[in-house]
Amino acid sequence: MPSQARVVWDTEFTRYDFGPMHPMAPIRLDLTARLCEALGVLDAPGVEVVGAEVASDEVLETVHNADYVAAVRAASVDPGSADPAYGLGTEDDPAFLGMHDASARVVTGTLESCQAVWTGEAEHAVNFCGGLHHAMPGAASGFCVYNDAAVGIRWLLANGAKRVAYVDLDVHHGDGVERIFWDDPRVLTISVHESGRALFPGTGWPTDIGGPDAEGDAVNVSLPPGLPDAGWLRAIHATVPALVRSFKPDVLVTQHGCDTHVEDPLAHFAVSVDAQRAAAEAMHRLAHDVCGGRWVALGGGGYEVVDVVPRTWTHLTAIAAHVPVKTSADVPQDWRDHVEQVTGRPGPRRMGDLTTEDGPLWWRSWEMGYDPASEIDRAIMATRSAVFPLHGLDVHFD
What we know:
Blueprint: E1 3-8, H1 27-38, E2 47-50, H2 57-60, H3 66-77, H4 99-119, E3 122-127, H5 148-158, E4 164-168, H6 175-180, E5 187-194, E6 218-223, H7 229-247, E7 251-255, H8 273-291, E8 295-298, H9 309-320, H10 333-343, H11 375-387
Parallel strand pairs: 1-2, 1-3, 3-8, 4-5, 4-7, 5-6, 7-8
Helix pairs in contact: 1-9, 4-5, 7-8, 7-11, 8-9
Keywords: Acetoin catabolism
Family: Belongs to the histone deacetylase family.
Pathway: Ketone degradation; acetoin degradation
């Protein structure tokens, strides 16, 4: 029998570690796995938990240049030799011992997730250790050494998938995946992110729509700082479902960086865990509606490593396992005790941020009309105007 959900996890993934002062602390992965375990998600029927080996150079070179892979290998043995020309040894991507193996293991996790979903071994797959979407073919960028999402998508295309949709919900533009498939009409990349005027990597404009052979297949929803739940969910629902349905992909790959959260220290949105959970639910439904359930869900950014990342990615994993956790559920006390022991912080009490006093999570659908006085709506309309006609969609009504 196929697995309901294949979940990638092993403590080896915590070796992806840029050092104690770096915001991408590996404890976020460990705490996520522990919270999944504490809530029984990993023990749910049909859930398979798997580790991953180090990807071969042959696999990495389906996306990355051979000289870059060699440079990563060299810096992994001697971090002091890291070459900034390859984005290595920088403040964002400092070299560390074992960097190649740690990064290549993440790639295998996503690659094998794609393989399992495509071959029918699993309906859904989750690699919350992955989603390293900034890595370029010849350089590290934005805390990302190898681009696991791109390697997985390339394997799908080489093994029978006619079309793949990639939806990136990280607060930062998914520039690496977009760049790699910029002129490939078989891949639809959609990135919903904070404007590059305010945030790294400074790219991802509505008019960036793909190369000459793939116009309209790169989609960028560039949103203003300070965006709350209602605006973020409105932007997602006003763009992603219609485009994915029109594209008719065989597989849906999604990236769930949770740095959209109001408490994230590196960005400027004001989104809650509740909204992030709602977005994951929407991607899950879309995979069932369009792709026969073939869904690969990845992690990504997220730098509030105690209060946000573990809850958001536990929700993601639980949704894929078809055992969703309510936002009103209590966080298990044994997990909170562990968090306090290792971090000196108590950790959140509930699986969501909103309370009954906040009212239900609500957003205004696009069908309710376009408001030109709204900065959010103008941003959404810029994207719809740029790409919807290229997919045969109406900018106002689809």
